[in-house]
Amino acid sequence: MILFDNVTKFYFDDAPPAVEGVTLSIKPGEFVSIVGHSGAGKTTLLKMLFAEVFPTQGSVFFGDHEIPRLSTRELLKLRRNIGTVFQDFRLLPTKNVYENIAFALEVAGKSDEDIQADVPHVLDLVGLGEKIWSFPHELSGGEQQRVAIARALVNQPDVLIADEPTGNLDPINAHDVVEILKRINDLGTTVLLTTHNKAVVDSVGRRVVTMDQGKVVRDDPHGTYVL
């Protein structure tokens, strides 16, 4: 269970809050699309889950753990249970696909044997097994995003955060990425998606949380993109 408990986040004392009074719970295995205009608070909300920022008021819980109260060591362990995918892919340009994904496993302390087994498996999951030795500049935008998803999944996180993952993609590649996210969710991973793309949200057909000016204004269990 993920719980945002009456969270408010101020970045500046003389500015409106980025997030204000949000209480939101997410069950294990849910697929939740978080939508809203730029500046609505979507990314800040997810940053609080990943402990990149902390709430000014209220708290965030991941299972039994109250995130703002965790030690640095505990936060590092928590982050291994949360995979992240962003709009700009963030691949290492001088490393090939295998090395980009293996790097995430090396940081987690996995053995060479585990890395050699896990990387091809996760690439097959995103349909890129044949691109294992390619470099990022040799891939299309959609393929680069699929590598980024594979990297986020390789440590088998409980939660995948996808922050505008289709923002730089054409409609066909965006559709492919969404289908992969749905497949990942069907395998049991909780998926939190932020997007401005109405077609993406409507194609998912699952829970939609709408934010406006830092507040949750709508929460539909089987919603569409409504602003």
Strand order of the largest sheet: 6-7-8-3-9-10
- The residue-averaged pLDDT reads 93
Task: Please provide the count of β strands.
Answer: 10
- Please give the largest β-sheet: 6 strands, mixed
- CATH architecture call of the largest domain: 3-Layer(aba) Sandwich
CATH fold type of the largest domain: Rossmann fold
Shape: globular
Provide structural commentary.
- The chain is of the alpha/beta class and 227 residues long.
- The chain has two domains: 1-81 and 157-227, 3-Layer(aba) Sandwich (Rossmann fold); 90-156, no CATH class.
- Helices cover 34% and strands 25% of the residues.
- The protein has seven helices and ten strands.
- β7 (159-163), α6 (171-186) and β8 (190-194) form a beta-alpha-beta unit.
- The radius of gyration is 17 Å and the shape is globular.
- The mean pLDDT is 93.
Q: Any key phrases for this structure?
A:
single chain; 227 residues; alpha/beta; Rossmann fold; 7 helices; 10 strands; globular
Q: In short, what is this structure?
A:
The protein is an alpha/beta fold. 34% of the residues lie in helices and 25% in strands. The relative contact order is 0.19.
